[in-house]
Structures are given as C-alpha cells and as structure tokens.
Amino acid sequence: MALTADRQALIWKTLNETRGKIEPSEYKNYIFGIMFYKFLSEKAQLWLDEMLRGEKWADIWAQDPEKAKNFMQSRLGYVIEPGDMFSDWKEAINTDKFNIMMVKDALTRFDNGVSPEAKSDYAGIFSDIDLGSSRLGANAQTRAATMMDWINLMDEIELDTDADVLGDLYEYLIGMFAANSGAKAGEFYTPHQVSDVMARILTAGRENQESYTLYDPTMGSGSLLITTASYMKNAGVQGAIKYYGQELITTTYNLARMNLMMHGVEYNDINLRNSDTLAGDWPDGTVDGVDSPRMFDAVMANPPYSQKWDSENREDDPRFKFGVAPKGKADYAFLLHGLYHLNNNGRMAIVLPHGILFRGAAEGRIRQALLENRNISAVIGLPANIFTNTSIPTIIMVLEKNRATDDVLFIDASKGFEKQKNSNKLRQEDIEKIVDTYLKREDVEKYAHVATMDEIRENDFNLNIPRYVDTFEEEEPIDLVKVNQDIVSVEADIKKEEAELLELVNQLAVNDDSKAVIDSLKSLLSGGNHE
C-alpha cells in the first residue's frame, strides 16, 4: 500500500503539534531518532519471533547473554537487549513506570552492542538525541513527559512494514523539515523531482545490470543514492547494489544512514563516511605511493555552491589533474573529485550554479580541459527557486569518463515548472520532457541543442546556455491602426459618460451653499478642459 498524500499531511500536522518550542532543525533529530529506533526494534522483534518460535528473548538472554548477543549481532549487526525494545518503552508508559533513563540507557546499550562489521553503519547513530536538553523540559520529570508524548506519537503512526511505505514517509518528512528549517536546510535535502531527473539519466540503458555501485561525495540525507538505486532491476536484492557516500556534517550523516536503512537497504551494502570529501579522498586512494582509487558505476552530487575550500598545495592531488579550483569557489573541486572516481563506463550527474559555465581564469581552464577530453555530455538548465536554500537558477551537468564524441547537449528547462507558495516545482511532464530530450539527443526548437565542438570553440569554451539555445519569443507586432481606433472609441465613451453625468448635475437642487461647487462641476463636465 502507498502512503497517501492525506496521510502524510496528517502525520506532519500531528508532529508539528508536539514540537513545542523546539526549532524544526533540532526537532527532526528527536523524531527521526525515535522513528528509527522503533524501526530497528520492530525489525529485531520480527526476526526473534521467527527464530525463537515461541521462546522469550528475555529467557534466551538470561541463559547466556554473550551467546544471545552474538546471535543477534551475526544477523542484524546490532543488539537490542530484553527490556530495551520500543514496545517495552510503550508498556512502561502504559503502566506508569517510564522514566527518561530507560531511553538513555537503551541507546547507550545499543551503541555498545553494534558488531565490529557494522560500526560504520550504526555506531553513534543516535548521538543527536540530547536527552538532557532543557528544550525537552526544565527537569527530568518534564523531559520524561515530553519523551512519552513523542513515543506515543510514534506508536500511533501505524506504518506498513513495507520498506517502500516507511521510506516514503521518511523522505516526505525530510522534505517537510527542510522546507521549515530555513536556509541551512539545503545542506541535507535535494528535492525529489531533481533527484528523479538525475537518477533516470544516470541509469538510462543500465537498469538491468546485475550489480551496481553508487557514490555521492556530498550525500546529505542520501536521497540521491536511494532514488538512483530505485531505477535498478536489482534494487531490492541484497548485495546487488552498493551504496557509497561521504558527508561532512555529523547530524546529516546520521540522517543518511537512517534514511538508507529505513528504505530497506541492508547495513552490509552501505559504505558511508563522516568526512570532508575535498580535504581527504576516499580511503582506497593512494596506498604506499601508488594511486589505486575506488571507482563507481554512477556518481551523483548536489554539493554546496561556490563554497570556500583549502586549495593550497593541491597540484599533485591526482583528483585535480585538470586544474585546481579557486579557493573561493569549490564547485569544480567537487566536480573533479566525482569524475576522478567514475569508472571507465560510468556516468556522473552533478548540480551546480550557472557560474561554472562561463567563469574564467582557473575555472575556464578546467572547463576547456574537460571539453577537450570529451568528458562533458550535457548541460541542463533548471528553473530558479526549486531548492530550499537558494533561489538562484542551477544546472545539472552530465559527465562521462570515455566518450566517443565531443558534442554537448544543451537543454533549457528553466521555464517548465509549477509555481508554489514559496518555491517552484518540476512537474511530472517537465521531468519526462528533460529525460526524453536527453535520451533522444536531438535539437528541439527553443528547448535543446546539440552543439559541436567547433561551436563551443567559437564561444571560447563558454557554456552559457543562451549561447546555444535561443529561447527568445518574438512579441506580436503592434497594430497602430487598431490602437488608434481604440483611442477614438475610448474618447467617445468618455464624452458620452460626461454628458450623462452633466445632465444629472443639471437636475440637482441648488442652494447658496452648493451653487459654487455645482457650477464648477458643470464647467469641468462641459468639455472645456478637453482639447
């Protein structure tokens, strides 16, 4: 079953009513954390019900805690001890035995019980749940009351165990929190419509591959990874698709880990790192002086735009062989990092500001090198104001490692959108048109053009879209005769209305007080001021 829009809106309304004074950007950490713990707890309980066949988890644990711990770790990668299940919290609430330490102790034990193989997937994943924060209440009692409200709320949100339904809700809530968290929200969220365009382009013609590796070096909440994988035939097959990603902000990194697992991705298919992509390369890079980077089938990214970065002493970094991006604008640094990790038959899609298409100096030299090396396949102009953290128009650039041709497809999709309250949104027909145009790779009047390298050289390797796609709409010629006729007609109507009003004024009763005013009005309406 799908989660209906009405159901989504009701859940968001209910969540908002329990937020109190906590800002949305902070509130999401508690809500997603509790939701994820409930998900892991119910997953563990379902597995235990199947494995124990009537025996109680508490009894198994009492017999040999270490053996019981290893038993659950070997399959799930984590351990939830008896008494620490989400259902145990709920029962404690119902019997007036709940206190805030139950949650704190359970989360501590969970963290300590993660298997060594799953450390990168689960360790510290609940670190953003600050149970001592005064935002929850002035003392332990009021904080416990707040936590009980949230646990009850999560319990009331009855979710199908289908990962698609749970994942859809999670993605919906991520989007809603992003829309309500201010400018910084863009650090963790890419609108689903943009993700969809990128995913369909990345997987086009490759949907049936038995195995596939995905990499997002600025993954945010992980939505680009999830959406791209959803178009692969083996998306739900354990081991078929491997997810790789890096994220600098720890809170967002935790969000991404939760997001992938809430979408049904097994922990041993997830390889995410909490690190600075530009400062340190993926750890499989240079080993003992030998460059042996990990390569991926698809690379996708929506990095922070024109961010400052440490560009010093980067000339020998193999990622930046085409040039070093200026320290005030890391756009090409992110692009080159992603391209470097793309395998020979891979495809890359990255969202960037328009400035990368025409800025000169170091960026101009990098752009020319990429073009002459046949790496740039397409440039797609998106509408303005479709991201939560910026109103500027952006582009999707599509790149490949080894192309047979050197032409570049330009698509101007900036005018196809639906206007919403505070933003613009790509409609389904807009998405279809972009993807269809990309796949056909043909000229479309006032929308797309396949530019030859000769054209691009003539433009000094400037890729500004209006140089290649003419979207100018000629205005209808002005019919001066018709305009003059309209003026004559309007003047005739004015004279007629004035005459009728003058007749009404002549019928007014006049006394000494009003005579001067009425005489003045008659003079005005008699036409003396019209020449």
Automatic annotation (TrEMBL):
It comes from the Bacteria. Residues 480-507 form a coiled coil. It catalyses: a 2'-deoxyadenosine in DNA + S-adenosyl-L-methionine = an N(6)-methyl-2'-deoxyadenosine in DNA + S-adenosyl-L-homocysteine + H(+). This is site-specific DNA-methyltransferase (adenine-specific). The keyword Electron transport does not apply. GO terms for molecular function: site-specific DNA-methyltransferase (adenine-specific) activity. Belongs to the N(4)/N(6)-methyltransferase family. Residues 10-147 form the N6 adenine-specific DNA methyltransferase N-terminal domain. Its EC number is 2.1.1.72. GO terms for biological process: methylation. Residues 162-476 form the DNA methylase adenine-specific domain. Pfam families: HsdM_N, N6_Mtase. Keywords: Coiled coil, Methyltransferase, Restriction system, S-adenosyl-L-methionine, Transferase. NCBIfam families: hsdM. InterPro entries: D12N6_MeTrfase_N, DNA_Adenine_Mtase, DNA_methylase_A-5, Restrct_endonuc_T1M, SAM-dependent_MTases_sf, T1MK-like_N_sf. The keyword DNA-binding does not apply.
